[in-house]
Amino acid sequence: MTFESILPIPDIFSARRILCIQPHYDDNDIGAGGTLVQLAKKGAEVIYLTVTDDLAGVVDATLSREAALQSLARDQQISGKIVCVKEHILLDYPDAGEYNYFSLRRDLLKYIRLLQPDFIFTCDPWLTYEAHHDHIQTGRATAEAVLFSSLLKIPSSDPAVDAAYQGHSINGVAFYYSREPNQVIDITSTWEAKVKAIRSYATQIPPDDADQMVMALQFKSSQICEGRDFQYGEPFKILNPSALHCGL
Question: In 3-state terms, what secondary structure has residue 133?
């Protein structure tokens, strides 16, 4: 008997409403953009929740805070149209700054209970040698929020949302940026859309940097697709929510 026979890998293509929780405004598209385009085309609602304000990575140092935020928002709207994102939610925690883990978890509980997604995407906080605290906090807080979403004794940041919540099923969590993937999704048909979305983030990724990023993604894709019958792929660790605590 294998672990997968007890808790089979959830079917990512069964998702109907997907909440994609990212530390920065480009992470969902870099890690999962090709897959999310496919899911949206199959009729799934795709909602992006961005944890930080992204200001640390703005290239143009002459921009005021307000102008930088406007530029970041334009990038995200352009990319969102390519990926078919239905809604953008911004929490505006300080990019690479100091913020409380439990405050973040409460906010994520709020939106999980409010939106009631059946699938969650986020970055893998257990990525080997991950040094960026935003990624670690986002992935771990997301995993805990999924685990605790039905436990109303653990409050969200909005008592009204908690009072109205009647419970729902989260069928799976897809971690991108994972070193231990258990599924690779064929994104050959949506690779160009993914690249176009990534190139939309001009406020933080100048054209030369975007070229290098695309080359790095192509190289990684060639590695994970070796021996497979498709050219471009995105790797995920896809788990049943029950696997998020003691593997049970």
Answer: helix
